[in-house]
Write a structure and sequence with these properties.
Elements: H1 6-12, H2 29-43, E1 50-51, H3 53-61, H4 67-81, E2 86-87, H5 113-127, H6 131-138, H7 142-152
Parallel strand pairs: 1-2
Helix pairs in contact: 2-4, 5-6
Amino acid sequence: KGAFREDLYYRLSVITLTLPPLRDRPEDILHLADSYLSYFSQINHKIIQGFSEETREVLLGYRWPGNLRELRNAIERAVILSNGSDLEPEDLPMSIFEPPTPQAYAIGDPISLEELEKLHIKKVLSTATSLQNTASILGIDQATLWRKRKQYNL
């Protein structure tokens, strides 16, 4: 049901830490990447000294929308695929080199509520696994989703 026991929540939330996203603290990226490199080199029985200068530039230039999980997975993949003593850009996932997907609209753009709804439904339709899943994500029933799709020609 997606419900979380309230008593368990309060037991677990003795101390709450709030950290800004990785993109807002680039000074941490290389330190974290080095830690992940050491860890994954050890468990994969590889001797990898570090990152080439080009790889460091790529790591620092990427926005890391997936935060630590994305960085961790990228370094793990690079360690597994690497055959050299340093990680090279070609060891990193291709998604890091792809330009970010532009948003359909930006906050503050003059856009009608109807157009905003259409764009949002279109985006959820493109990422959801089914129409039922789409309706659930949007918080509407399937009949309403059907009417909206017909209204907006989606």
